Amino acid sequence: MRILNSKQQVENYIEMAQIRKWENEEEIEQKVRRIISDVKDKKDEALLYYTRLFDCEGICLDELQVSQEEIERAYFECEREDKDFIDALNTAYKNIYEYHMRQKEESWFYIKNGSLLGQIIKPLEKVGIYVPGGKGAYPSTVLMNSVPAKVAGVEKIIMVSPPDKNKSISKYTLAAAKICGVDKIYRVGGAQAVAALAFGTQIIPKVDKIVGPGNIYVATAKKLLFGYVDIDSVAGPSEVMVIADESANPKYIAADLLSQAEHDPMARCILVTTSLQVAQEVSENVEKMLAIFENSVALEAIEKNGVIIVVDDLFEAAEIANIIAPEHLEICCNDTEEVLLKIKNAGAIFIGEYSPEPIGDYIAGPNHVLPTSGTASFFSPLGVYDFVKRMSLIKYSKEQFFSDAQHAINIAQKEGFLFHANSLKVRLEDV
């Protein structure tokens, strides 16, 4: 890994790190716009065409929906072959549910001079969950996206996931969907799946919100369709930053950096440390582990975006973290509280050597759907609050109306809205 220890090197890196742009972004957007337009106009016909083109040539329209029998079969097959996996899913579900229950909001009201004012919290009716598929299996994505929706009280959870060439969705993904109580599952992926959820087709219902990670085509479709439907965020490549002092374990840090590197060749893996010795030992451990596992994706990510920054003190390390606003931030040093108090921007924070990022990915409870590409400076992790809407309530008393109406009239007149003012005046004139 590159080690940067001069002021100029660090400044250049931070400036570069703030440029957040996908490769071939304009070209991809044109392709996605065409797919969205086709699905909007031709609905299931376009959905089937693109599913055959990108995922599975021989699939038929009536095979796009996964049957309840197939979901049950996948679950019991997993249970028979690997009960430990089902136990792990159930433990993760319990921890995630327990954590997100603490995020629930309640409606509230208060009375002022005989008037009733308040806020009503209602869950969204239908939510779409995108789960990557094809060659991979992502049961943890099902858990992290479904559980907060369930806690919020969402009525219908619709899941989409691309099939492999044999028309299959991973049994591990389906088992997780059964545990989470997902209502309907469809074998569709990519921008076409996002468009189907946004507009609705003959077989896929229109939803109120789409959540879940995906590739550049999925992310672009979500961005373009925001407004027709709500979305969680436009996710970029995964990233991890570790802040460490001389007390940190270089082997652990190297393992944690590589755990993010295997996500994507564009994944960003950063160590910021006050110790040159730790920097060198981490770099050596990364090389050793890459040689053992021979993972080409992780190797490319480390070569492209792996960097070690040596700083004078932990205050400088925290400043760099706040500028980059990493998706995952690990703090591995003696005085974690000192560093934590200085952190303003991060998706999820992991403290101490026994809190590696993967424990948060799978089992701890907090959501692993996190803001990326610096958006942690203004976005939050996915949570129950993403699956509810708020309605304000106003029930004015006659006395309060007569007390406040003239003030409202004065403001309306200054804005030039005479009918607004008139709506208030006709009530005053009746007295």
Automatic annotation (TrEMBL):
<dbReference type="Pfam" id="PF00815">
    <property type="entry name" value="Histidinol_dh"/>
</dbReference>
<comment type="pathway">
    <text>Amino-acid biosynthesis; L-histidine biosynthesis; L-histidine from 5-phospho-alpha-D-ribose 1-diphosphate: step 9/9.</text>
</comment>
<keyword id="KW-0862">Zinc</keyword>
<feature type="binding site">
    <location>
        <position position="420"/>
    </location>
    <ligand>
        <name>substrate</name>
    </ligand>
</feature>
<keyword id="KW-0028">Amino-acid biosynthesis</keyword>
<comment type="function">
    <text>Catalyzes the sequential NAD-dependent oxidations of L-histidinol to L-histidinaldehyde and then to L-histidine.</text>
</comment>
<dbReference type="GO" id="GO:0000105">
    <property type="term" value="P:L-histidine biosynthetic process"/>
</dbReference>
<comment type="similarity">
    <text>Belongs to the histidinol dehydrogenase family.</text>
</comment>
<dbReference type="InterPro" id="IPR016161">
    <property type="entry name" value="Ald_DH/histidinol_DH"/>
</dbReference>
<keyword id="KW-0479">Metal-binding</keyword>
<feature type="binding site">
    <location>
        <position position="263"/>
    </location>
    <ligand>
        <name>substrate</name>
    </ligand>
</feature>
<feature type="binding site">
    <location>
        <position position="215"/>
    </location>
    <ligand>
        <name>NAD(+)</name>
    </ligand>
</feature>
<feature type="binding site">
    <location>
        <position position="238"/>
    </location>
    <ligand>
        <name>substrate</name>
    </ligand>
</feature>
<feature type="binding site">
    <location>
        <position position="361"/>
    </location>
    <ligand>
        <name>substrate</name>
    </ligand>
</feature>
<feature type="binding site">
    <location>
        <position position="420"/>
    </location>
    <ligand>
        <name>Zn(2+)</name>
    </ligand>
</feature>
<keyword id="KW-0175">Coiled coil</keyword>
<feature type="coiled-coil region">
    <location>
        <begin position="25"/>
        <end position="81"/>
    </location>
</feature>
<protein>
    <recommendedName>
        <fullName>Histidinol dehydrogenase</fullName>
        <ecNumber>1.1.1.23</ecNumber>
    </recommendedName>
</protein>
<feature type="binding site">
    <location>
        <position position="260"/>
    </location>
    <ligand>
        <name>substrate</name>
    </ligand>
</feature>
<dbReference type="InterPro" id="IPR022695">
    <property type="entry name" value="Histidinol_DH_monofunct"/>
</dbReference>
<dbReference type="GO" id="GO:0005829">
    <property type="term" value="C:cytosol"/>
</dbReference>
<feature type="binding site">
    <location>
        <position position="260"/>
    </location>
    <ligand>
        <name>Zn(2+)</name>
    </ligand>
</feature>
<keyword id="KW-0520">NAD</keyword>
<feature type="binding site">
    <location>
        <position position="263"/>
    </location>
    <ligand>
        <name>Zn(2+)</name>
    </ligand>
</feature>
<feature type="binding site">
    <location>
        <position position="328"/>
    </location>
    <ligand>
        <name>substrate</name>
    </ligand>
</feature>
<dbReference type="InterPro" id="IPR001692">
    <property type="entry name" value="Histidinol_DH_CS"/>
</dbReference>
<keyword id="KW-0560">Oxidoreductase</keyword>
<feature type="binding site">
    <location>
        <position position="192"/>
    </location>
    <ligand>
        <name>NAD(+)</name>
    </ligand>
</feature>
<feature type="binding site">
    <location>
        <position position="130"/>
    </location>
    <ligand>
        <name>NAD(+)</name>
    </ligand>
</feature>
<feature type="binding site">
    <location>
        <position position="415"/>
    </location>
    <ligand>
        <name>substrate</name>
    </ligand>
</feature>
<feature type="active site" description="Proton acceptor">
    <location>
        <position position="327"/>
    </location>
</feature>
<dbReference type="GO" id="GO:0004399">
    <property type="term" value="F:histidinol dehydrogenase activity"/>
</dbReference>
<feature type="active site" description="Proton acceptor">
    <location>
        <position position="328"/>
    </location>
</feature>
<keyword id="KW-0368">Histidine biosynthesis</keyword>
<dbReference type="GO" id="GO:0008270">
    <property type="term" value="F:zinc ion binding"/>
</dbReference>
<feature type="binding site">
    <location>
        <position position="361"/>
    </location>
    <ligand>
        <name>Zn(2+)</name>
    </ligand>
</feature>
<dbReference type="InterPro" id="IPR012131">
    <property type="entry name" value="Hstdl_DH"/>
</dbReference>
<dbReference type="GO" id="GO:0051287">
    <property type="term" value="F:NAD binding"/>
</dbReference>
